[in-house]
Amino acid sequence: METERILSRPRTRRKVLLMGRSGAGKTSMRSIIFANYIPRETRRLGATIDVEHSQIRFLGDLMLSLWDCGGQDVFLDSYLDAQRDNIFSEVQVLIYVFDIMSTDVERDVYYFNKVIRCLHDASADANVYCLFHKVDLVPEHQRQAVFEERQRRVKESVDTISLKCFATSIWDETLYKAWSFMICGLIPQLSKLDDALLKFCEISEGDEVVLFERATFLVISHATLHSHSDVHRFEKISNIVKRFKLSCNKNQSHFHSLELRNSQFLAIIENFTSYTCVLYVSYRSDIQATAVKLNIQCAKTLFEQILGSDMESQV
Amino acid sequence: MDRDTHSLKATVSSYTKYAKDLGPYSVPEEEKVKGNVITESSLSALSQSSKASPSSTNKCNIALGGLARSGKTSIHSVIFHKISPHETLFLESTGRIVKHVVSHSPFCQLELWDLPPELLQSDSESSPSLEDIVSICSALIFVLDTTTETPDETLQLLHQTIVRCYNVNPQIHMEVFIHKTDVLSDEQKLSFQREIQEHVDGELRDIGLDRVVSQVSYRLTSIFDHSIYEAFSQVLEKLHPQTCLLERLLDTFVGYSGIENAFLFDAVSKLVVATDSSPVHGNDFELCSDMIEVAIDISGIYSFGNPRNHTKEDSIQDSHPVGEESFILDHWNISSSCGYFFQDSSCWCTIRLGNGIVLHMKSVGHYLCLVLMARGEILDSNWGLVGYNIRVFSECLSKVIKSTRCCDA
Ligand SMILES: Nc1nc2c(ncn2[C@@H]2O[C@H](COP(=O)(O)OP(=O)(O)OP(=O)(O)O)[C@@H](O)[C@H]2O)c(=O)[nH]1
Ligand SMILES: Nc1nc2c(ncn2[C@@H]2O[C@H](COP(=O)(O)OP(=O)(O)O)[C@@H](O)[C@H]2O)c(=O)[nH]1
Ligand SMILES: [Mg+2]
Ligand SMILES: [Mg+2]
Questions:
Q1: How many folded domains does chain B comprise?
Q2: A194 and B CB contact within 8 Å
Q3: Which numeric CATH code is attached to A12-185?
Q4: How far apart are CA A12 and CA A313, in angstroms?
């Protein structure tokens, strides 16, 4: 099973820079999303020295080259100067992390500005995302206001480029929301996936079908036939299932599938293609779980094809 | 257990009827069922015995004491109010006695007294006094902060509190929660516990209170992992007169259904009410309780999504906290979404793991749910039987609950 995955080499490489001042939480985030840390374990992380590179295979065909850039001033100064070409060339995504509790906003913005300027010179097309991190430390009723205020200051300082901002915390689903959004933008087959998923949802008489990347449990795509009042539900499910997966790992096992039913709905989570999991939800009480599972099996080949198709088209 | 052919026949036919309703499950052949179905009569003997014990009353008073910022309010907020551990950062210090009334399942009817630190000081003149409260409590949980900067003062207070509690209520269970252990390594935890226990035991013996030594239990806890749930479950199991009976019910259930472990959870708090007596491996406990959480969370999202059915979220109303003179009374109500979830007795969840183990959860009414662990191949050929046995189990459980209610009245 594993050999098959290794044989098909990923063709799409993406360079992702993770920057921000020391202690902002960069290494914590990536450890939770990509290295199966639980939030509590991030307390043991030490400051990152210089740049830590990691190669992350995502959905089989996409290779993320993640540069976690240690944020102490000496390192930042060096990125902006001596290492400038190496760091900022051929960047597709810059993720800039601010500690929302920071007391030195002035200096945060100063560095951010310099980084943006270097990025603009070397990789003008890169997407820039700003994460205002550790929102859990702000009392809930103030969160929105603090976030907007910080966002305004950062945006004012670089009015030439468009920024997408998120308020995040390692303690809840906001982390998954931000990362799902940022990573999804890199998937070339996204619109094809969306279409296929919608079709699958209709054929299998589901009300909602969601596709997750299997290792990170980031949301890739979803098909929704009825509007649902909870707009944060996908990242919540990412967070819920990922936590449970880690709990299984602790028990020397791994999560395989879930089936949940009450008088209102049926939900099934199963491994889908080699790199994805699928969540199927139906509100109909006459839907048979076995039939749904059979449908999921049948759809597999099609989705494997879509996820692998980018490879052929680029050859 | 009697297995005469007559009763077997009756159960097989009713079981087959049930299996048909289950739909997706395969219907096993009749011979697999032989001798495996729990008969009403085999369990009724057990539920009878509970009627015999008139002392079975469900309401438990538990006092929570300790120094300021030791984590008392955090503990019950995390377990019973479902706030996330990291949110306890915002808790303000508790200036008065607060009584929290917890009424979940019939086995989780508690009155928790969150005591302000001053009350434990010997010169405290507040009314009600520590003695007043402890005299009605079946347990006192002393929360001891391992990160404290004043360990001597803490130990001194612990010793003094134990003696005072024992003097007014010699029956009281004293539970020392050695708390915030998430900051310690495994060796540190054990040496901490050993040190504290030796110290307290020594002091108690010095003043001739040898018999109190066995009344004090020590548990390592943290709200950031599962340890707080295990510790609190153990306290509850100790206080409940029905624990033994429930354990026997579960043993019978497990034996007859070919499964490995069965846990009965108070679904809302995720505290374990009872387990069967076979050994529990490693983190199985935690896994089962995490499973309940997954089921609650996903149900919370999709139970109200159904466009064809307008179940209003606010159908369960919250009652307002009632203020009283000498202390604050906090009536906490089960939040609407998970409240709905556990009143829905048709709810079940199955999770399959890579190692062939299957977890199956079924709500059995009264805010209780049963979680089973079994090998997949065994469960998959016996779903109908297990389903039937779960039903018999829930009926017996209802009888136990009813009979204890009668005793209370
Ligand atoms: N409260 C809270 N703490 C966080 C959060 N994210 C990270 N932390 C904590 O912040 C501290 C620093 O995190 P790191 O990930 O090491 O910071 P970094 O940005 O990698 O720092 P450098 O490597 O020096 O650049 C750790 O102790 C984390 O536990 C969050 O969302 N909320
Ligand atoms: N590290 C850690 N901190 C905890 C734990 N339990 C509580 N705390 C923290 O201890 C502080 C005081 O808690 P609180 O419940 O108000 O203490 P109380 O005065 O005894 O009621 C809070 O900031 C909590 O976040 C724990 O298990 N581990
Ligand atoms: Mg780092
Ligand atoms: Mg308090």
A1: 2
A2: no
A3: 3.40.50.300
A4: 12
Tokens 């039939």 locate to A291
ipTM score assigned to the predicted complex: 0.87
pLDDT in tens, A246-281: 999 888 889 999 999 988 899 999 999 989 999 999
Strand partners for A221? A211
Is the domain of B98 the same as that of B122? Answer: yes
Cβ pair B78, B223 in contact under 8 A: yes
- B324 is a domain residue: no
Token pair recorded at residue B22: 């289950």
Burial of residue B123 (number of CB atoms within 10 Å: 0-12, 13-18, 19+): exposed
Ligand 2, residue B64: give the atom nearest the CA: 20
Residue B397, domain CATH: 3.30.450.190
Tell me which residue has tokens 């830590």.
A52
Please provide the CATH number assigned to the domain covering A190-309.
Answer: 3.30.450.190
- The type of residue at A300 is K
Contact A38, A13 (CB under 8 A): no
Is B100 near ligand 2, meaning CB less than 6 Å away? no
Query: What does the pLDDT read at residue B27?
Result: 29
Report CA dihedral (B242, B247, B248, B249) to the nearest 10 degrees.
90
Query: Distance between CA B380 and CA B358 in Å, rounded?
Result: 9
Structural contact between residues B97 and B128, judged by C-beta atoms closer than 8 angstroms: yes
Going by C-alpha positions, the residue among B273, B305, B311 that lies closest to residue B292 is: B273
C-alpha distances out from residue B258 to B26, B276, B373, B382, B389, Å? 17, 13, 10, 9, 11
Domain of B352?
2-51+241-306+332-408
Local structure of A176: helix, strand or coil? helix
Three-state DSSP at A155 gives helix
Q: What is the pLDDT of residue B107?
A: 86
Q: State the pTM of this model.
A: 0.84
CB of B72 closer than 6 A to ligand 2? yes
Residue of chain A nearest B304, judged by CA positions: A264
Same domain, B218 and B107: yes
Nearest to B341 among A207, A262, A267 (CB): A262
Bridge pairing between strands B357-363 and B368-375: antiparallel
CA A47 to centroid of ligand 3, rounded, Å: 5
**Cα–Cα nearest to B189, from B142, B159, B144:** B144
pLDDT tens figures, A192-219: 999 999 999 999 989 999 999 999 999 9
Q: Are B158 and B144 in contact (CB under 8 A)?
A: yes
B246 and B168 within one domain:
no
